[in-house]
Design a protein that fits this description.
Mean pLDDT: 80
Number of strands: 36
Number of domains: 2
Largest sheet: 10 strands, mixed
Distance between the termini: 20 Å
Radius of gyration: 32 Å
Shape: elongated
Structural class: mainly beta
């Protein structure tokens, strides 16, 4: 075991927060007692932050010389870590209670992150006589913002874990350190001395307790959680831009939720740059989806056909099916980007394999050079990914993900109908059971491949909804609510969308049309989204999902991009 782990896990730092002792003695004339409670505030500072016991407010207005059955005592303390560490703390209780007294002392621990508010108050009860016994019962008033994290009777000479808390707030620079800090929590330990109606049995007994705060270990901060924590408690139901300011480099710390609760980077140039695959600031974060980060390469790896085919199949214009289906292996571009197609032979214009010649055979995945399809009727050219292909380190971070391939489902033009072309509709299309082939005959629709609506694989492309939801600035509201993707070249939509790059870009989604089965959605050079035949030579920006255990640090700027580690 290394020295650091020994320090973290064995030589655990324990901080005394409060010690309480109570003795109760019964007299015929009344009830009295003593308590040993620290009367002043105490702050203990260490390398992990500070813990403050607010002794001045302990027991509120209670008379500490009169402890009685029915008494309620409140002990307040605050845990605040330093701003450069994200850690897990544990609050423990060491109690010593005589067995006869066990069920008469109840402890409740409340937690609050709402400071500066009188979250909890105690009202002292009035002394009365019932059945020849003195009775005095205090009242506790708890603010609704408090969270109850522990409640139980004290257990004799035992150690009870009351709470484990993780601190996870960003620093003021809007960056993600290797370990991320938090703020602070205020705790209220409430002791209730239960009046069980048998005060004689409680004479002369006492109990004592000690609350400690321990630093357990440094919390591993996974990438998706780190990005989500950038926006704090922003409302996931709102699609408004969450603006944390502009970096000196000119990129903006702007994110926003979509209509489905996914957090995305938005605007013309957000600070979402990532060093990945050895390419410094060469990738960018699209957003967080189901607690996984989706990346896209900032620049393309070149222009290639989405798919092409023999001249006898859909006139040689390709098949708009991305993944494997039956005996069909999948689109040519999918086979270029993903593993498992090393022996994929090239085909001539008649669809016959060319012995000894390979094309789109996992070249990008394997970081190799070879042949890539670049036009209709299985035309191909040489291509080289020896510099841009995926490294082994990068591949270890890529999740084998289930991608959505649903189409828009319209018989003709996706622009028709009220709101059918909005980004929100495309998100639903992509997750629907609509296929990319609704035609059944004709020379543009004679392939026999069944279209699937999902695909499991490693490297894909952005979706039309990714492009639509990346819009930011003042244009965002109008673009999302009133502008279909085919009109994103208007209303300042594309000029406020960082996924736009002045070229024709492939997306992953098929276009359903009544007489063609060769169309795929693409982002046009002018900024709108529409359909193009699959054989076209458009730029390819690989996209992928990171495995959930990837960690992240950095600022996300071009000069100080996010860095990833496993």
């Amino acid at each position: 075991m290394n020295k650091k782990r020994v320090i973290l896990l064995i030589v655990i730092l324990s901080i005394l927060v409060v010690t309480l002792s109570i003795t109760y003695a019964y007299y015929a004339s009344g009830v009295s007692g003593t308590t040993d409670v620290n009367a002043t505030s105490t702050t203990v500072t260490s390398q992990i932050g500070e813990v403050e016991f607010n002794g001045g407010n302990t027991f509120d207005t209670a008379n500490l010389d009169e402890i009685y059955p029915g008494f309620i005592g409140v002990q307040e303390f605050t845990i605040s870590p330093y701003q450069d560490g994200s850690n897990v703390y544990e609050i423990d209780l060491q109690a010593n209670v005589p067995e006869v007294f066990l069920n008469d002392i109840k402890l409740t621990l409340y937690k609050s992150s709402n400071t500066g508010v009188n979250n909890l108050t105690r009202e002292e009860g009035s002394l009365t006589i019932i059945n020849n016994q003195f009775v005095k019962q205090d009242t506790l008033n708890v603010n609704g913002t408090l969270t109850k994290v522990y409640e139980d009777s004290l257990v004799s000479t035992s150690k009870t874990v009351l709470e484990q808390v993780e601190f996870t707030i960003l620093n003021d620079a809007f960056t993600i350190p290797t370990v991320t800090p938090d703020g602070y929590y205020t705790y209220y330990a409430v002791y209730e001395y239960l009046n069980n109606g048998d005060q004689n049995s409680q004479q002369g007994y006492n109990f004592s307790s000690k609350i400690t705060v321990k630093y357990l270990k440094e919390k591993t901060k996974y990438a998706a959680d780190a990005i989500l924590s950038l926006v704090g408690d922003a409302d996931p139901a709102s699609t408004a831009v969450i603006d944390k300011g502009t970096d000196a480099s000119g990129c903006t710390n702007t994110l926003a939720y979509d209509d489905f609760g996914n957090l995305r980077y938005v605007g013309s140039n957000p600070c979402n740059y990532v060093t990945f695959n050895g390419e410094e600031a060469g990738w960018r974060i699209i957003g967080v989806f189901d607690n996984q980060i989706k990346l896209i390469r900032n620049e393309s790896i070149g222009g290639y056909s989405w798919d092409t085919s023999a001249s006898s199949v859909n006139k040689g214009y390709g098949i708009n099916q991305w993944g494997e289906s039956g005996t069909y292996k999948g689109a040519d571009l999918m086979k270029l980007l993903n593993p498992g197609f090393d022996t994929n032979l090239a085909e001539d214009s008649s669809g016959n394999t060319i012995s000894g010649t390979y094309a789109n055979n996992s070249l990008y995945w394997n970081k190799q050079s070879g042949n890539c399809y670049n036009s209709s009727k299985n035309a191909y050219t040489t291509c080289d990914f020896s510099a841009t292909g995926l490294s082994e380190s990068a591949k270890s971070m890529i999740d084998k993900h289930t991608w959505n391939l649903g189409s828009q489902g319209e018989n003709d033009d996706f622009k028709s109908g009220d709101g059918l072309g909005l980004a929100s509709k495309f998100y639903e299309y992509e997750r629907s059971n609509n296929t990319g082939k609704i035609c059944t005959s004709g020379s543009w629709c004679n392939d026999t491949v069944n279209r699937t609506t999902t695909w499991e694989g490693y490297v894909g492309l952005m979706s039309p909804s990714d492009y639509g939801y990346a819009v930011g600035g003042e244009a965002r509201t109008n673009c999302l609510a009133n502008t279909n993707l085919n009109n994103y070249d208007t209303n300042n939509c594309y000029t406020n969308d960082w996924l736009y790059n002045s070229t024709y870009q492939w997306t992953m989604s098929p276009f359903a049309y009544s007489i063609y089965s060769v169309y795929v959605f693409s982002v046009y050079s002018g900024g709108r989204v529409s359909n193009r035949t699959a054989f076209n030579l458009y730029v390819v920006r690989p996209a992928l999902f990171l495995i959930s255990s990837v960690q992240i640090s950095g600022e996300g700027t071009p000069s100080a991009p996010f860095t990833l580690s496993v």
